[in-house]
Amino acid sequence: MDEQRGIVLVVDDDPRVARVYAEQLRQQHTVRVAYSGEEALESLDDDVEVVLLDRRMPDLTGDEVLERIRDRGLTCQVAMVTAVEPDFDIIEMAFDDYLFKPVTGEQLLSTVDHLLKRATYDNALQEFFAVASKRAALEAEKSHSVLQRSEEFAELTARFEHLQAELGESLQELDDEEAFDLVLSDRF
């Protein structure tokens, strides 16, 4: 699957975790590794297609690295890979997916493949998937009653529903594998 191969930057301040992720991904992708936020920004260029970014790091947090990535105008896909329980602050963050540690090699490979595919979609579809990821992360970690009381979550859900209606045909045109993966991911 050479067309699926991409350049992935793994960022985690725990060298063991970063090495394990890198080894799991090297089966199918070219991998760069950074052990800090500063090192990540130094390693990042236009060739990097996917960044797997830890949120909790000592020098620059993953949140700060994400902000700098977007400020630089880089269009890489970013997945936050973290043990940090998501709160409503993630709604405003410009990531594309959110994974909870611990993650398996299969989850990493699947996420990278999905993000590479999403990068080929138009901006509206990319936004839809990012919003869906945030919604799914919050639904996985917050109680129904907390979500019901949250104005931010209500706005996120309204945005999700608006995009879903707007993109109806485009979503139906996704190939069978992508549609199957979306159903399995329990995001819709």
TrEMBL record:
Which InterPro entries would you find in this protein's record?
Bact_response_regulator, CheY-like_superfamily, HalX_domain, Sig_transdc_resp-reg_receiver
Q: Which Pfam families match?
A: HalX (PF08663), Response_reg (PF00072)
Keyword field contains Glycoprotein: no
At which residues is 4-aspartylphosphate found? D54
Give a yes or no for keyword Calcium in this entry.
Answer: no
GO annotations under biological process? phosphorelay signal transduction system
Q: Where do the coiled-coil regions begin and end?
A: none
Name by which UniProt lists this protein: Response regulator
Q: Which UniProt keywords apply?
A: Phosphoprotein
Q: Which PROSITE patterns match?
A: RESPONSE_REGULATORY
Q: Which residues form the Response regulatory domain?
A: 7-116
